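tokens incoming
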């Protein structure tokens, strides 16, 4: 999902980043909105499960 709700919910939840998996790209206007709200956007071409496993390995 790459609509404006992703950034809105991240902002309301006081989230510092959003991770997009499976090569999903975010439109430029949403990238600018994320920048304005100090929300980082991270991306991976890997499937969601593999991305989650790799992230878990990095923080454990």
């Amino acid at each position: 999902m790459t609509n404006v709700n992703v950034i809105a919910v991240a902002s309301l939840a006081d989230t510092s980043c959003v991770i997009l998996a499976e090569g999903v790209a975010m439109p430029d206007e949403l990238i600018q909105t994320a920048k304005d709200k100090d929300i980082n956007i991270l991306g991976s071409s890997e499937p969601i499960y593999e991305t989650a496993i790799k992230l878990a390995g990095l923080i454990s």
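note: Residues 35 and 41 are 9 Å apart (CA to CA).
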